[in-house]
């Protein structure tokens, strides 16, 4: 392992996740992504850009027996994902690969769910991060359209693809989904009541025919402002982050 790491607790300590001390460090976004995936025991789940495995392992903590595969471009992060799987007693297959050039064996497989937390920032309109690991995770080198294309191709019929992304990228994400997935749903995530959504969860189904659904926004925190140095998550969000509860689509 060529990077210094720290070990952090997720789901109130049920998961212990080793991640780089410097570079991209998982926050609440992968936990929310995992909470929104409606997988069942025995179903096959692929995560594109799995990093150190936080989202996959949060999903496995809620749904025992899911069959996990992660794809990660950066070898150090992939090695940490394998370590985290072992340390948490979770079976997972991790492939070190560019999602735009998946290994042949993976291209022959299909999955009930594909999930992804693509890099948030279009570097044509933003500044690259100084840390290389963080830049790969946060700066969009592979176009968002390719993430959606690969996710759709790897889905089994009637399978679901779920993404978390910044709200301002929603038009790009929906444009990429158009013609590839149906039954599209959008769940906005607001920091506080009265604020614009900062993030969105977006789900589509392969072969889905249901009408587009824009759900009411999920408010993360109580109060109009952060009033004190203490946690202010709403009960339903606290249940997701601390207890591994499912995040309802309404």
UniProtKB/TrEMBL annotation:
InterPro entries: SAM-dependent_MTases_sf (IPR029063), Small_mtfrase_dom (IPR007848), tRNA_Adenine-N(6)_MTase (IPR050210)
Limits of the Methyltransferase small domain: 32-128
SUPFAM superfamilies cross-referenced by the UniProt entry: S-adenosyl-L-methionine-dependent methyltransferases
Native species: Shimia abyssi
UniProt keyword annotation of S-adenosyl-L-methionine present: yes
Domain of life where this protein originates: Bacteria
GO BP terms: methylation
GO molecular function terms noted in the UniProt entry: methyltransferase activity
A Pfam family this chain is assigned to: MTS
Signal peptide coordinates: none
Protein name, per record: tRNA1(Val) A37 N6-methylase TrmN6
Sorted UniProt keywords: Methyltransferase, S-adenosyl-L-methionine, Transferase
